[in-house]
Amino acid sequence: MTILIIEDDPKTGDYLRKGLKEHGYVVDIARDGVDGLYRALEQDYELVVLDVMLPGLDGWEVIRQLRAKRDVPIIFLSARDEVNDRIRGLRLGADDYLVKPFSFVELELRIRTILRRGSTREIEVFEVADLRLDVVRRKVTRDGVEIPLTNKEFMLLHLLLRRQGEVLTRTQIASEVWDMNFDSDTNVVDVAVKRLRAKVDAPFERKLIATVRSVGYSLSVDP
Fold first, then answer.
1. Which site among 35, 49, 153, 207 is 20 to 30 Å from 81 CA-CA?
2. Structure confidence by residue, pLDDT tens digits, 63-80
3. CB count in 10 Å sphere of residue 180
4. Is 0.85 topped by the overall pTM?
């Protein structure tokens, strides 16, 4: 599931991106209203988290222009806590309005609820061969045996399952899981894949995680 955060405060934006990525979302950030509106119109996001007080265009104008062309779900996340502000946001077409400071758990639950109401449901359980990953319960099993994973290992496996059959480069994996630009001198991706294989593949006859030489990795159900 892809989410766009339009938030000018770096600390809040980075906190949201980190938390949502750990819950399996693909997250982009725009730091002002102009860039945010452009991204929301040009790309197919499942949901937008929108601040009100933004440089360039404020949140009111962003949602007004966005609603004229797109029907993407929008959650206002703002320090403006007056009742009139909430009413204004909802009348402009927001699906929800959450006031700062906020509980991340509450925000994530509201996002999940809104996405469930739409035509697109987030996949909560992935199953490939005898491998099963439950996103909500953060539980991984293979052939019925539970496999304990670290947070990064879980995120890595979740990414491979979401994009199963695709060959993911080390750069893509580093960006999605570690939120970093890949340095060719850094073997963090290779080490993480090796550790994940030791838990998910090594104890079982059928191997699911494949290395594509000079490119990256993929998870496939091919024999």
1. 35
2. 999 988 888 999 999 998
3. 11
4. no
